[in-house]
UniProtKB/TrEMBL annotation:
It is found in: Cytoplasm. It comes from Actinoplanes regularis. This is Shikimate kinase. Its EC number is 2.7.1.71. Monomer. Catalyzes the specific phosphorylation of the 3-hydroxyl group of shikimic acid using ATP as a cosubstrate. It comes from the Bacteria.
C-alpha cells in the first residue's frame, strides 16, 4: 500500500483542509501525519514542543511519515516541516507529491498568531517569511506537481488536484 498522493507545503498552505476535500472527491481515505503524531504522543503538538522539544517532535515525525508512506492507502498530508529531513525527502522520490504553494500574505492571514503551530507562536510574520524562503527549494525538490493556493478557494484547489490525480479522461 502507498498513498494516492502526498501533500506538502508551508503552514497555512491548506494541506489538511484541501487534503480532506481531495480524498472525499476521489472516494479515498485521508490522513494527516500531525494527527497521527498527536495520537501516538498522547498530546497536542504544542505540548510535544513544550514538554519534549522540537528534536523529539521531528524524530517522531520522521518515523510516522516513513510508516505512513509505506502503509497508508489514501491522500496523505504532511506537516510543513517534514521535508526538512533528508531521509524523508529521499523516501518522497518514490511518491506522487503535490506542493501546495502559498505566499507570505495569504499564509499569515490563514494561520494568524500560530493556531496550534508552536514555531509561529512568537513573531509569526518574520518566522513565516524565513520558513517560506528556507523551505521553498525543498518543497520544489520533492514535488511532481506545484499548485498555487493564493487568492483561491479550497474547493477549487481540491478539484484541480483531484483532476490531476485522476489523469487524462
Ligand atoms: N485556499 C484557502 N483560502 C482560504 N483559507 C484557507 C485556504 N486553505 C486553507 N485555508 C484555511 O487556512 C487555515 C490553515 O489551513 P490548513 O489546512 O490547516 O493548512 P496546513 O495544514 O497547510 O497548515 C485553516 O483555517 C483553513 O480553513
Ligand atoms: O512547519 C512546521 O515545521 C510545522 C508545521 C505544522 O503542520 P502544518 O504545516 O500542517 O501547519 C506542524 O507539523 C508543526 O507545528 C511544525
Ligand atoms: Mg496541517
Amino acid at each position: 500500500m502507498r498513498p494516492v498522493a502526498v501533500l506538502v507545503g508551508p503552514p497555512g498552505a491548506g494541506k489538511t483542509t484541501i487534503g480532506e476535500a481531495v480524498a472525499a472527491a476521489l472516494g479515498t481515505a485521508f490522513a494527516d501525519t500531525d494527527s497521527i503524531i498527536e495520537t501516538r504522543a498522547g498530546k497536542p503538538i504544542p505540548e510535544i514542543f513544550i514538554d519534549d522539544g522540537e528534536p523529539a517532535f521531528r524524530a517522531l515525525e520522521r518515523t510516522v511519515v516513513a510508516e505512513s508512506l509505506e502503509t497508508f492507502d489514501g491522500v496523505l498530508a504532511l506537516g510543513g516541516g517534514a521535508i526538512l529531513d533528508e531521509g524523508t525527502r529521499k523516501l518522497l522520490v518514490e511518491h506522487t507529491v503535490v506542493f501546495l504553494s502559498v505566499e507570505l500574505a495569504d499564509a499569515i492571514k490563514r494561520v494568524g498568531l500560530g493556531a496550534g503551530r508552536p514555531l509561529l507562536a512568537m513573531n509569526p510574520r518574520a518566522t513565516m517569511k524565513f520558513l517560506l524562503e528556507q523551505r521553498r527549494p525543498l518543497y520544489t525538490e520533492v514535488a511532481a506537481h506545484t499548485v498555487s493556493t493564493d487568492d483561491r478557494e479550497p474547493e477549487e484547489i481540491a478539484a484541480e488536484i483531484a483532476a490531476l490525480l485522476r489523469g487524462p479522461a
